[in-house]
Design goal:
6-stranded parallel β-sheet, globular, 328 residues
Amino acid sequence: MGRTDESFPYGRVVVTGGAGFLGRFIVARLEGLGGVEVFVPRRRDYDLVERASIERLLDDARPDMVIHLAAVVGGIGANQKNPGKFFYENLLMGAQLIEQSRLRGVKKFLALGTVCSYPKFTPVPFKEEDLWDGYPEETNAPYGLAKKMMLVQAQSYRQQYGFNTIFLLPANLYGPGDSFDLETSHVIPALIRKFVEARRRRSPFVEAWGTGEASREFLYVEDCAEAVLRAAATYDDADPVNIGTGSEIKIRDLAEMIARLTGFGGEIRWQTDRPDGQPRRRLDTSRALEKFGFRAGVPLEEGLRRTIDWYETTLQESGAGKGETARP
């Protein structure tokens, strides 16, 4: 795979969520390897909440491996509006995909979890063994718990059936191709969009959620794709693995960095009545380095610069270059 072994050990791979933000990078990398047939199910054809659709998908694709990226997900606001939907659909997708993959003899299943599964007050840096030491932060607990059930299933299926299922816990992702819809987006694309629009409109201020004092760890999407493919090719253990950079930044400092990179010189007004979410997030990434040699390569400021360039180019190409807005 360029950075590991050029020969990927699985010839037929289903990538759920393969048309999504992270999935597009993983699919492109797999297709570039040669000798790997990639099947990307679309929701209009296969509703992964429904068992019959999953059965049909696996019968149609006959995969050696499943990489499960598909999720119903969003930022703090979206999680607050949809706790039941986020819990139910993520739980059903994961549980049924793993079970049906086992029944059909899939050789390996990679389940992508979420940093939201960690307890609200996890000691920093978050270590994989801390996952069960408390309840997740309330604003995204239903989503985090639904995804964490895949770890329980992976470990129990490995124990009882010898089913090779691995579980990864990525930090917050960002990069080109992310969702910039303010109703559902995460913090980086939301701030980029707000600052770019404010600069174009010559607005004197931008409003940002929370106090700005919470911290987060951000992983560039192409780095995450590299980690997923390394683990897919070589990692075969029951233990969950953190995927990240091992560094954190306060949201206030992040906002100031994005303002500078987008050329916005106005005021940032913090909406302190809005929730901050989990107080801090920073992962211990030593297991990923030890088990499959992954280390993130794109520094935050460089990744932000690339993301902003992509967003501004997308605005220009959509014809929203003279004060109008676009929804990439």
